[in-house]
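Exercise 3.2. Students should predict the tertiary structure of the chain below and write it as structure tokens, then compare their answer with the key that follows.

Predict this chain's 3D structure.
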Amino acid sequence: MATAAINTAYPYSRDQRFFTRMAIGIAAFIVFGFAQWALRGFVSPSTVPIWVHLHGVAMLSWLGLFVTQNLLASSQNIGLHRKLGWISFALVLVIAGLGMFTGRMAIELHRVPPFFTNAFFLALTHIEATAFAVMVGAGIALRKHTQWHRRLMFGATIMVMEPAFGRLVPAPILGPVLTPIIQMSLQLGVVAIVARHDLKQTGTLHPATRLVALAVVTVTAVVMGLSVFPPFVSLAEGIAAAG
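Answer key:
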């Protein structure tokens, strides 16, 4: 996602082509991650609560909008890009709210995957949703600074690649400690692709790319920390007991 403010250090059309291809690739990967999970029979759509379907529709809407915004930036249709940008922020608030609600209800209804503790799942759904919304908000706030804007928007979407990675790694084998570390490493691998682009274009890492990498590591560390923090564990178990 980019605005009209173009840094002359970056050839705009070539630069945007990279981000458009990345947007399409990330969106396709996330859809694949969830689709193969369902096709392998690990989830029964007919038994999934309605709010989970709503969350899925909202996330698909985000991915479609994410790709569309990059295509609009490629064609330099900045007017429509800006209008859709405000819609995207409203959508993000819905996604974050549904993500938190879905996580809480999964605990209450005892639908948490067996390889996660209740505390870990509660922390994961709430911290990740918050980080996603904050990063999008920061990206919109910095919309006049193209290189910051686009990287923060990509960072937000990289943040929500975690559930897709989680459906591809063997979590039951890796366990509750290695699983989030492996997922974080895979997310950082995507950030590394952007970092490589930065170095190729300007010879240095853009500060926003560094910030995205730090955010990915921080979210994982906070989630893992909260999952063993006694008051938070008590909170999660209380939610489970109320179900």
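Discussion points: The mean pLDDT is 91. Residues 171-202 form the longest helix (32 residues).
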